[in-house]
Amino acid sequence: xxxxxxxxxxxxxxxxxxxxxxxxxIVEEFRLKHGDIINRTSRTEANRKLDLIANKRxxxxxxxxxxxxxxxxxxxxxxxxxxxETETTVVVTAEKSDNKKKRKKKKKKGTIP
Length: 113
Known about the structure:
mainly alpha, two-stranded antiparallel sheet, 2 strands
């Protein structure tokens, strides 16, 4: 049996910004938290759905991975609040990177004779 729209919406919320490393771990963790949905569908169906709606991205500097649900999927599921959350996360990350660069530059200036 395929996932309903409500099931997919719940699955997308769970996946979005998830930091688990593999599809199997995501499906297993989702099964533990939302067993009623996974019991209606198979693990294979959940894995296929994950492939269709999300992408895994590596974080810089060995920070692990993050799963992001595709913007088109979030829009079709009417989860616009998660789209805004992603944009905010990117801005905060950029600010942190700029601050690190400034700190590194200051250190370099102090060590040069």
